[in-house]
Design a protein that fits this description.
Pfam families: Mannitol_dh, Mannitol_dh_C. GO terms for molecular function: oxidoreductase activity. This is Mannitol dehydrogenase family protein. The chain is an alpha/beta fold. The protein is built from 23 helices and 13 strands. The chain has a five-stranded parallel sheet, with helices on both faces. It has a three-stranded mixed sheet with strand order 4-3-11, with helices on both faces. Strands 10-12-13 form a three-stranded mixed sheet, with helices on one face. Helix 20 packs across helix 22. The termini are far apart. Bound molecules: D-mannonic acid (CS2).
Length: 494
């Protein structure tokens, strides 16, 4: 027993790898022998559960594509992983759950504390690719354009050599490379935004134009911003995972992560510098990914957000719980089949029915506890790309939008409930939303009109009379938003 206790206190590290039990899969290469070829902005759980795993598969044969993970503001990831030589454990949650140690992140930086080191990496000729998972809010967009009133952008435009935002860093790095006569890196967005590469390119160009017109021209001509679609359900780390990992590894991992076994990465094959042979490790290289990203965002993520807000009002805790509620599960299945799929142009050859069935099966995965509260974060950023864009397309096609408005109305009730209970929202618009919600009275006309003032969320739909009427009806149908009232609304809507 004494031996076990002292082992349990050991930290995961390169040295500890040799002593891990054989049931735990380890990197098939010497992490110390790899070289950094990618800078990744935003090495949170999703990146570490998804892209870093594809690279971990690749490094054995292609050792010059290791990752430098850069957090823009928080020191948490660096402080957790640096003492572990960048190693961390991934739990794959399926019928047979497996633990795997990932070694592809070889350097961790926090830009706020080490800006010079980040800029030096971006200017390193061995870095040929910059990838990003900074979530919707990290793009600092207002609609399709760069939000030049965003405090980080205001700062970066005034001091472009000491940026705060991801856009500021991307452009500062490109500027340095141009000055040094180096080829630019490709910029690959891996966030849940339709046309993510195009949006990022537009924002970067708008930023560059304001600081240096020649640089903007160079970026426009020389830099590729391919789009990509990423998919893997990644529930946040909890104590149960930490304990399981510690007991199976026999050593401490400060920040293990977990995800379902399913994973998909579709990448537009348009790079301006060398790229890793992603196709060798299961990613799909494509010349046109538009369609894949829309289908995934609007079907999977649209359904997820619907479950999150409706399910939270029903006092349910996880996606699994929500899928066990026949009325809610039935509503979401119909929403995808009858309201979302017919309103989008699906990629050629995609069987919508099979795709939807597979998503519902993933949501029912009994090995996963994916909290609705996690999915409910950042609603103001997620709803426009996940559901409101489908509503706009459905209106253009003259289709009914009543079912699509129910989750939007549920979000409003959810925001209202959190404000009335004094629970802070996890959302960049938290303050605006809370003061708006506190002033609501429960009257559908007044409340919906107040929410529709939020241009950042509702433009360009806010003035559409059909949308206003359908949203008011959905808001009224949810009544006082108790579980019983939500259940009745779910039944009545279709
Ligand atoms: C989820 C996504 O948290 C959320 O908003 O909808 O993280 C979802 O699990 C992934 O996009 C699946 O690929």
């Amino acid at each position: 027993m004494a031996g076990m206790q002292s082992q349990a206190a050991t930290r995961l590290s390169l040295q500890a790898l040799a002593n891990l039990p054989s049931s735990v899969r380890k990197p098939a290469y010497e992490p110390a022998d790899t070289r950094i070829g990618i800078v990744h902005l935003g090495p949170g759980a999703f990146h570490r559960a998804h892209q870093a795993v594809y690279l971990d598969d690749l490094l054995a044969d292609h050792p010059d594509w290791a990752i430098c993970g850069v957090s823009l503001h928080s020191t948490d990831v660096r402080n957790a992983l640096q003492p572990q030589d960048g190693l961390y454990t991934l739990a794959l949650l399926g019928e047979q759950s497996q633990l795997r140690v990932i070694g592809s992140i070889r350097e961790l930086l926090c830009a706020r504390e080490e800006p010079a080191a980040v800029l030096a990496r971006l200017a390193d000729p061995a870095v040929r690719l910059v990838t990003l998972t900074i979530t919707e809010k990290g793009y600092c967009l207002a609609g399709q354009d760069l939000d030049v009133s965003h405090p980080d952008i205001v700062h970066d435009l005034a001091s472009p050599s000491t940026p705060h935002s991801a856009i500021g860093y991307l452009v500062a790095g490109l500027r340095a490379r141009r000055q040094l006569g180096l080829a630019p890196y490709t910029v690959l967005s891996c966030d849940n935004l339709a046309d993510n590469g195009h949006r990022l390119r537009r924002a970067a160009l708008q930023f560059a134009q304001r600081i240096d017109a020649d640089l903007a021209e160079w970026i426009e001509a020389e830099v590729a911003f391919p789009c990509s679609m990423v998919d893997s359900i990644t529930p946040a780390t909890d104590d149960a995972l930490r304990e399981r990992v510690q007991s199976e590894l026999g050593c401490v991992d400060a920040w293990p992560i977990q995800r379902e076994t399913y994973t998909q990465w579709v990448i537009e094959d348009r790079f301006c510098n060398e790229r890793p042979p992603f196709e060798c490790v299961g990613a799909t290289m494509s010349h046109d990914i538009a369609g894949y990203d829309r289908a995934k965002l609007r079907l999977l993520n649209g359904a997820h957000s619907s479950l999150a807000y409706l399910g939270s009002l029903m006092d349910l805790e996880t996606v699994g719980d929500a899928m066990s509620e026949p009325r809610l599960a039935g509503f979401v299945g119909r929403l995808m089949r009858e309201s979302i799929a017919p309103a989008i142009a699906l990629p050629e050859g995609m069987d919508a029915g099979a795709y939807i069935d597979a998503i519902l099966e993933r949501f029912r995965n009994p090995s996963i506890r994916h909290r609705l509260s996690q999915i409910a974060w950042d609603g103001s950023q997620k709803l426009p790309v996940r559901l409101l864009s489908t509503i706009a397309d459905a209106l253009a096609l003259g289709r009914s939008i009543a079912p699509l408005c129910l989750p939007i109305a549920a979000w409003m009730h959810f925001v209202r409930r959190q404000a009335r209970n004094g629970v802070a929202l996890v959302d960049p618009l938290n303050e605006v939303l809370s003061s708006l919600a506190v002033a609501t009275t429960g009257d559908p006309d007044g409340d919906v009109a107040a929410f529709l003032q939020l241009d950042a969320v509702f433009a360009p739909l806010s003035a559409d009379k059909r949308f206003m009427a359908a949203l008011r009806a959905a808001y009224a149908a949810l009544g006082n938003a108790t579980p019983a009232a939500v259940t009745s609304a779910l039944v009545a809507v279709h």
